[in-house]
Amino acid sequence: MMPEMGGDELCASVKSDIETSHIPVMLLTALGDEKDMLEGLENGADAYITKPFSINVLRANIRNILANRALLKRAYAGLEDGVGQVPPDCHNTRDWKFMASVRECVMKNIDNPGFCVDMLCGMQNMSRTGFFNKLKALTGHAPADYIRSMRLQYAAQLLREKDCSITEISDDSGFSDVRYFREVFRKYYGMSPSEYRNSMRG
């Protein structure tokens, strides 16, 4: 037993806090009846292993958790329109809702070149450090990189769908300097905005 609070209570505390809900929790416990297992899993545990345990089972659980986290990270970082739709097998809806909220805030401010990480943190009611750690853990991106990726993906959408000039698309995507826009677009997509438009309309 842990001092002061049980593992299931600690798990519930970690999983209910938006700044820590993304952290995987594995309960390794002597409490092996069905009621205890259900309570631990309902509190958000990613795995529930009873003592005595096999080291191979423990390792397999760790591998599975890490593999699932990698899949989720790709999904969160994908920035698709459906990012806010919770997949049926996702038990951590808090993180999906967080990502949907972050995406919505960025999209509402996509054409504002002054929109920055501090503003996004404020909209999420989180400290800069807490927000950085959360977004980095979920997507693999720092907040500034995430915002820039969103801007570039929006610019790519405009290039596919609109006949605006490159300067207008740069402005509509929140880039105040068209030369910088061209530079980061080329780095992200491997071609200039004009080349991208031509390749999409081929």
From TrEMBL:
<protein>
    <submittedName>
        <fullName>Helix-turn-helix domain-containing protein</fullName>
    </submittedName>
</protein>
<dbReference type="InterPro" id="IPR018062">
    <property type="entry name" value="HTH_AraC-typ_CS"/>
</dbReference>
<feature type="domain" description="HTH araC/xylS-type">
    <location>
        <begin position="100"/>
        <end position="199"/>
    </location>
</feature>
<feature type="domain" description="Response regulatory">
    <location>
        <begin position="1"/>
        <end position="66"/>
    </location>
</feature>
<dbReference type="GO" id="GO:0043565">
    <property type="term" value="F:sequence-specific DNA binding"/>
</dbReference>
<keyword id="KW-0805">Transcription regulation</keyword>
<dbReference type="GO" id="GO:0003700">
    <property type="term" value="F:DNA-binding transcription factor activity"/>
</dbReference>
<dbReference type="Pfam" id="PF00072">
    <property type="entry name" value="Response_reg"/>
</dbReference>
<dbReference type="InterPro" id="IPR011006">
    <property type="entry name" value="CheY-like_superfamily"/>
</dbReference>
<keyword id="KW-0238">DNA-binding</keyword>
<dbReference type="InterPro" id="IPR001789">
    <property type="entry name" value="Sig_transdc_resp-reg_receiver"/>
</dbReference>
<dbReference type="GO" id="GO:0000160">
    <property type="term" value="P:phosphorelay signal transduction system"/>
</dbReference>
<dbReference type="InterPro" id="IPR020449">
    <property type="entry name" value="Tscrpt_reg_AraC-type_HTH"/>
</dbReference>
<dbReference type="InterPro" id="IPR009057">
    <property type="entry name" value="Homeodomain-like_sf"/>
</dbReference>
<dbReference type="InterPro" id="IPR018060">
    <property type="entry name" value="HTH_AraC"/>
</dbReference>
<dbReference type="Pfam" id="PF12833">
    <property type="entry name" value="HTH_18"/>
</dbReference>
<keyword id="KW-0804">Transcription</keyword>
